[in-house]
Amino acid sequence: MNLKYLVVSLLNTGLIIYVSSMPNHCLPGDGSLSDQIVSNVAHIPAYGLLTFLWLKTFDRRKNTTQLHNFPASQLPSFTKSQPHNFLVAQLLNFAPSRLPVPLNRPFSVLAGLVLFAVSDEIHQSFIPGRSASGIDLGLDLLGVFFGLCVFSRLKQLNRLNQLNELNISNERSGRTL
To answer: With the CA atoms of 77, 81, 82 and 86 taken in that order, what torsion angle do they form, in degrees rounded to the nearest 10?
Structure first.
């Protein structure tokens, strides 16, 4: 875990929560259509940056863990009065025991960010003058997607640069790959 990025990620997350907690009358702008468009479109870079920062926080090479044969006995027992928990238990029991699913940090970060976006919209429904919006949630998720794309592309470019540097050093020493 990169502690430098962790601090920045937590601050960015806190900023999003702070802005989400502001009542509508405290937000800048006059409520015109152009202000609404700008505030809606601002969700994309805000969540894109959030995604990038959290992915950088947990970025490590060779950090995948294979889940095989997750024993059903380790799942807590669920009753019929909790159907959503029962469904989760069934999904957990099915996927890992029959499929070798690589569960890595980027997947966990993205799942956490999707849950954060949903909970942020629910949170806004309790703030005076604010409401939960499916459009805002969609823009949040679009930002998460763009953040993932930027992170992946930069990581790919970093790998290419490392390969180029290795090739150059090998050429200078007379070796080839």
So the answer is: 50
